[in-house]
Design a protein that fits this description.
The chain has helices at 2-8, 15-33, 48-55; strands at 39-44, 63-68. Strand 1, helix 3 (48-55) and strand 2 (63-68) form a beta-alpha-beta unit. With 69 residues, the protein is α+β, with helices and mostly antiparallel strands. Helix 2 (15-33) crosses helix 3 (48-55). Strands 1-2 form a two-stranded parallel ribbon. It contains 3 helices and 2 strands.
């Protein structure tokens, strides 16, 4: 049943568009938090993939943790 749902699903954003969006978020976060030592919290399950991709693009020291919600 899940395979059928996937086969019938519409792609709303391709991989390139998602990567560009993450790059924009990383640039904004880097601009706003430069010079600070932020605590970055990821909401586990829904945000884990996005959070992981975003963290690799942040060029400053930070503290990372996660929360379950």
């Amino acid at each position: 049943e899940l395979a059928q749902v996937l086969a019938e699903a519409d792609c709303l954003a391709d991989q390139a568009a998602v990567e560009q969006a993450i790059d924009r978020v990383a640039a904004a976060v880097s601009r706003d938090l430069a010079g600070s030592l932020p605590v970055v919290l990821c909401v586990v399950k829904g945000g884990i993939v996005f959070g992981g991709q975003l963290l690799t693009k942040l060029p400053f020291p930070l503290d990372f943790d996660y929360v379950h919600a």
